[in-house]
Amino acid sequence: MTILNIETSTNVCSVALSINGLCVFSRTNADGMNHATLLSPFIDEALQFLSPQTPNAIAVSGGPGSYTGLRIGVSTAKGLCYGLEVPLIAVDTLEIMSLMANKLIENRPENSLLCAMIDARRMEVYAAFYNLKGELVRNVSADIIDENSYIELLDKNIIYFFGNGAPKCKTVLKHSNAVFIDDIVPLAENMIPLTEKAFAEQLFADVAYYEPFYLKEFYTTAIPKSIN
Predict the structure, then answer these.
(1) What are the start-end ranges of the H helices in 4-118?
(2) For residue range 87-112, what is the model confidence (pLDDT) as tens digits?
(3) Which CATH number fits domain 93-180: 3.30.420.40, 3.30.300.130, 2.40.50.100, 3.80.30.20?
C-alpha cells in the first residue's frame, strides 16, 4: 500500500511517500511560502520514485494553518485524486504536530498535556490539547493569549507547548508548568501513522466537497479607490 502525503499548512512545504507504513521518499523546504513553486516538483519526484506504480491514496494536512498554504495543498491533492482515480485522506495539522512532539519528550509525568499551536494574528493562536496517548482532550480553538491563558489546565498539568504559535507565548505564559519545545513544524513524513490508520479504516474525504479546516474566515483588505 502506497500513500502520497502532502503538508503545506505553514511556511514549510513537504511531501513524503510511504509504502506499507514506511517512509521511502521525503522532500522538505522551509525557506518560506514557496508552496506554489515547490509542491509540484516535489510530487513529480515522488511519483517518479514510485513509477510505474501509482499511489493507492493521496493524503493532505487539512488545517488549521495558513489560508494560502492549505488552499494550495488541498487543491493539489484533490487534482491528483481525480487524475489518478484514488481516494483522498485528510488529517488534522495539530495532531501531526502532537505526534512529533510526543516522540521527543522524555521522563514525562503521566498527567502531562501536549498543546500544539499554529500562529494566527497578533497574540492569537490555533491550539488543541492532547494527552500522552494521543487523545484529544480539548478541541481546537482560536485563542488570544494573555498571562491567564490555560491557567486551570496549567495548575493541574505540565503542558508542553510547541508549533509556530508557541514562541510568541513564551514571554506571556510564565506558569511553572509551562514547557516550550522549539522547532516543531508539521511535516509530511510525520503524517504517515495517521494516514496509514485512516486508509486501513477506509476513512476517506469526499474529493468533490472537501475543504480545508480554516477555523476562521479569511479576510482581505480592500484597496481604496484613488481620488481624482
Answers:
(1) 35-50, 67-84, 93-104
(2) 999 999 999 999 999 998 888 888 89
(3) 3.30.420.40
